[in-house]
Design brief:
This protein has 397 residues and is an alpha/beta fold. Among the domains are: 7-168, Rossmann fold; 284-380, Rossmann fold (3-Layer(aba) Sandwich), CATH 3.40.50.11410. Helix content is 35%, strand content 18%. It has 14 helices and 14 strands. It has helices spanning 18-26, 71-80, 99-110, 129-138, 151-162, 203-214, 227-231, 247-253, 263-271, 274-281, 308-321, 356-368, 376-383, 387-395, and strands at 7-12, 44-50, 54-60, 87-93, 115-120, 143-145, 185-189, 218-222, 239-242, 260-262, 292-296, 326-330, 345-348, 373-375. The strands form 3 sheets. A 6-stranded mixed β-sheet has the order 2-3-1-4-5-6, with helices on both faces. Helix 11 packs parallel to helix 13 and helix 13 (376-383) crosses helix 14 (387-395). The model is unreliable at 31-41 (pLDDT under 50).
């Protein structure tokens, strides 16, 4: 389920029009529609662009009333999507609102998931006043009556999604929001090493460039080997953002009065529990012999000899602390195979391939147990002795 676009889960009993709703939102026949109940078996992701909202991932789930032999397994997979979605659509039809729908409303509330309730197939049976009153007893969410084959229903549904407020909105926050002003010059330092993807830049670097433009600023992109040449032009950047792996070298080359941070720390601010990261990073200096550390990557990739999460960070932490530390690794969105309380520290990657909601739920078990959490960029800043400088700009805002 790795995708940084907002995820919208679609839930309902079998044959309530979940797949038809996806086709309605996209204006395409991309989901199989059948009168036979149970056509959708496992949660299926569909990355789409919805006019007025932008890129999202729609998750078509199996019917929650599936009583077939595989129904229990399908329901577990449906429930698992609750950990990864940013919003939900709860569908019911023919005014049949009951225990299944009420159970999911409670689950949405438990996971703090904003949701919309849609009575579908209004061409066959309109939403009754009695049903409206029943729904109102259990939820204050927006309730709409739609026909998944009518274009005007798409407009109504999209407007309801756009009305989702605050941190749950589908507007992607800017990496540099509040850190720069229009016309500022932002220097982006992007080393090209063995881990750099062939012929392209990594996602946080791309996001930073777009954020510079969104903030009406100017971007200068250079490699770490060109820093001295940059300053020969007598240009003075308002902010310098670097890859965390060259923090030490870049910090020595950038005057101390110029704010400096990293792409990974910007990602931590945008997606993670930043205050928890700030507190947790300082625990690195308190690690002891025999401590276990969990390194969490949010994507899967081939490991190289220069891999930052599996090679560099473990080696740097052992060298910095002088302790005999043990490391476990977790890729994608898989669950830990041991109790979080067994770890002395959790180190999360930047999370560029997952949503803020997914990253928050990923860290939640550790934070609830009081386990210190940090991320790659903050860890590298700490062991290089420049944590205060690398986070100073955020503390001043």
């Amino acid at each position: 389920m790795n995708n940084s676009s907002p995820h919208i889960g679609i839930f309902g009993r079998r044959n309530t029009g979940k797949s038809s709703l996806i086709n309605l939102l996209t204006g395409q026949d991309i989901a199989i529609v059948s009168e036979q109940a149970g056509t959708t078996t496992d949660p299926v992701k569909k990355s789409v662009e919805i006019f007025g909202i932008g890129p999202v991932v729609l998750i078509d789930t199996a019917g929650m009333d599936d009583d077939s032999a595989l129904g229990e397994k399908r329901l577990r997979k449906t429930m698992d999507t609750l950990k990864h979605i940013d919003a939900a659509l709860l569908l019911f039809t023919d005014n049949q609102f009951g225990e299944f729908e009420i159970d999911f409303i409670h689950r949405f509330q438990a996971y703090d998931i904003p949701y919309i309730i849609a009575h579908t197939k209004s061409d066959l049976a309109s939403l009754s006043e009695e049903t409206k009153k029943t729904v109102g007893k259990f939820s204050s969410a927006n309730l709409i009556d739609i026909n998944t084959f009518a274009p005007e229903s798409a407009v109504r549904l999209i407007e309801s999604l756009k009305a989702i407020p605050g941190e749950h909105s589908f507007r992607t926050p800017s990496l540099l929001s509040g850190l720069v002003e229009a016309k500022d010059l932002v220097l982006l330092i992007t080393p090209i090493d063995s881990e750099a993807p062939e012929g392209r830049m990594i996602l946080p670097q791309n996001m930073a460039i777009r954020s510079v433009l969104d903030e009406n600023c100017m971007a200068m992109v250079i490699k770490d080997t060109e820093i001295d040449d940059f300053f020969k032009f007598n240009l003075r950047p308002t902010l310098v953002v670097t890859d965390s792996q060259v923090f030490d070298r870049v910090a020595r080359s950038i005057p101390d009065e110029i704010p400096l941070t990293s792409f990974s720390i910007l990602m931590a601010r945008m997606k993670g529990d930043f205050e928890a990261y700030l507190r947790g990073t300082q625990k690195i200096s308190e690690l002891a012999d025999g401590d276990s550390i969990l390194i969490m990557e949010s994507c899967t990739h081939q490991t190289s000899c220069d891999d930052i999460g599996r090679i560099k960070i473990p080696n740097l932490l052992r060298s910095f602390t002088g302790k005999d530390l043990h490391f476990s690794f977790l890729s994608g969105l898989s669950e830990p195979d041991r109790d979080m309380s067994q770890y002395a520290l959790v180190v999360q990657c930047g999370g560029c391939m997952i949503t803020r909601k997914q990253l928050a739920n990923r860290l939640k078990p550790a934070i609830e147990k009081g386990i210190p959490v940090t991320n790659y960029g903050m860890t590298l800043a700490w062991v290089n002795g420049i944590f205060e400088r690398a986070t100073r700009i955020f503390r001043q805002k």
